[in-house]
């Protein structure tokens, strides 16, 4: 099967390679200055990590396989500290490389370990989930959670390359796959309406890695993300659009002690942001309905019940906030993202009433 190559521009450009049999590209992405490579992988994925390590060993690198807890449990300071110790024991120098293999949680951790080790070593990411491929591994946002909130500690550290092997999607649990679909649909609402049409025409196909448009959906979402982060790596302005739905989503994830899937929280968060847009007089009701219909059709949640004051308090520390001013990404239409700055408390609560069960 042919491979697609999406270029990410900016000060540290790199490619995202999408297809099957992409591991052959790994040594070139790691580069010839490295001696040692730390392969940080989700511990539940030995079958996927093994060929990655094998390809690197065959290319002559000394490989240190470093398993980390599966999923969100990886994004903890204790796990990160464990990686620093392992890097030290393995003698990882500035010319050596970290390869992250796993879902978005694993690549967020691996990327931040690379960003912080010796003040920054090269990272190559091999995402193995839909969400990892279309969002987390691309764009250089790395980080971990703290008890006070999601992704509150991290760094912008673009990878040297991203390898998306679509065959790894075949073993994904259905709910995790659908979670990734939320970020694809997000890319549709903020920038690429063709994504929305593809999902609407065949929601069953979209919710399966065997669907007829899997590759196109992945590629389209990667292109949206690549275009945005090429222009604004450090989230000076434009990049905020990728955060559509995330202000409430991150509060939900914290309220659920990070046991709620990210994409599921983003789905609810997008409906909330769409309701905010409507109540602010900026978005027709039919577009809000389109959010609910589309997300529901693939099995994503669109409502949530928890105490509003707690969620509202957590949202204060969202990274888009400036001082005491809350800032939201909203929509003025499909593919027309805008900002809502300092909305009044009644508007915030009214939008939540539309989402709350
Ligand atoms: N850095 C970014 O720009 C960015 C963007 C979006 C999301 N994120 C982060 O990504 C994380 C969510 O990522 P995710 O949805 O990939 O979840 P995840 O990393 O938690 O993975 C979900 C589960 O799937 C398992 N898994 C991974 N690949 C598999 C495969 N091929 N077959 C079977 N099981 C597999 C994992 O081990 C884990 O148990 C969140 O922490 C979120 O904050 C980061
Ligand atoms: O890449 C971005 O920028 C995003 O906002 C993408 C989001 O999907 C992602 O979940 C990101 O990690 C959220 O960033 P944060 O800065 O709000 O933690
Ligand atoms: Zn996200």
TrEMBL record:
Keywords: Amino-acid biosynthesis, Aromatic amino acid biosynthesis, Cobalt, Cytoplasm, Lyase, Metal-binding, NAD, Nucleotide-binding, Zinc
Entries under InterPro entries matching the protein: Dehydroquinate_synthase, DHQ_synth_AroB, DHQ_synth_fam, DHQS/DOIS_N, DHQS_C
Residues binding Zn(2+), per UniProt: 183, 246, 262
An example Gene Ontology molecular-function term: 3-dehydroquinate synthase activity
Pathways per UniProt: Metabolic intermediate biosynthesis; chorismate biosynthesis; chorismate from D-erythrose 4-phosphate and phosphoenolpyruvate: step 2/7
EC assignment: 4.2.3.4
Cofactor: Co(2+); Zn(2+); NAD(+)
Recorded catalytic activity of this chain's protein: 7-phospho-2-dehydro-3-deoxy-D-arabino-heptonate = 3-dehydroquinate + phosphate
Domain 3-dehydroquinate synthase C-terminal per the UniProt entry, residue ranges: 180-321
Subcellular location as annotated: Cytoplasm
Cofactor note: Binds 1 divalent metal cation per subunit. Can use either Co(2+) or Zn(2+).
Start and end residues of each 3-dehydroquinate synthase N-terminal domain: 67-177
Keyword Coiled coil part of the UniProt annotation: no
Keyword NADP found: no
Pfam family name, one: DHQ_synthase
Annotated residues for binding of NAD(+): 70-75, 104-108, 128-129, 141, 150, 168-171
NCBIfam families xref list: aroB
Family statement drawn from the similarity comment of this UniProt entry: Belongs to the sugar phosphate cyclases superfamily. Dehydroquinate synthase family.
Protein name: 3-dehydroquinate synthase
């Amino acid at each position: 099967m042919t491979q697609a190559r999406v270029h990410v521009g900016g000060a540290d450009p790199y490619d995202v390679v999408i297809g099957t049999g992409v591991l052959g590209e790994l040594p070139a992405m790691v580069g010839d200055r490295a001696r040692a490579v730390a392969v940080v992988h989700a511990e539940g994925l030995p079958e996927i990590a093994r060929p990655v390590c094998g390809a690197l060993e065959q290319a002559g690198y000394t490989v240190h396989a470093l398993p980390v807890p599966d999923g969100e449990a990886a994004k903890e300071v204790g796990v990160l500290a464990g990686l620093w110790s392992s890097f030290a024991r393995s003698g990882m120098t500035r010319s050596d490389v970290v390869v992250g293999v796993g879902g978005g949680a694993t690549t967020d951790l691996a990327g931040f370990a690379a960003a912080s080790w010796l003040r920054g070593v090269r990272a190559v990411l091999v995402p193995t989930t839909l969400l990892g491929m279309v969002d987390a591994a691309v764009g250089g946002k790395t980080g971990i959670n703290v008890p006070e909130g999601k992704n509150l500690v991290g760094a912008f550290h673009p990878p040297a390359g991203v390898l998306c092997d679509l065959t790894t999607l075949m073993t994904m649990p259905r709910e995790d796959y659908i979670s990734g679909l939320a970020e694809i649909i997000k890319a549709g609402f903020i920038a690429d309406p063709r994504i929305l049409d593809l999902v609407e025409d065949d929601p069953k196909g979209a919710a399966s890695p065997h669907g007829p448009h899997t590759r196109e959906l992945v590629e389209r979402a990667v292109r949206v993300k690549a275009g945005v982060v090429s222009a604004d790596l450090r989230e000076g302005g434009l990049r905020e659009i990728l955060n559509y739905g995330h202000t409430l989503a991150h509060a939900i994830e914290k309220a659920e002690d990070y046991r709620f899937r990210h994409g599921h929280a983003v789905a609810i968060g997008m409906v909330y942001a769409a309701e905010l847009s409507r109540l602010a007089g900026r978005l027709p009701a039919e577009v809000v309905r389109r959010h609910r219909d589309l997300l529901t059709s693939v099995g994503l949640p669109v409502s949530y019940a928890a105490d509003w004051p707690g969620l509202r308090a957590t949202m204060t520390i969202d990274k888009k906030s400036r001082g005491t001013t809350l800032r939201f990404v909203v929509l003025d239409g499909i593919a027309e993202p805008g900002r809502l700055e300092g909305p009044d408390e009644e508007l915030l609560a009214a939008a939540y009433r539309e989402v709350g069960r």
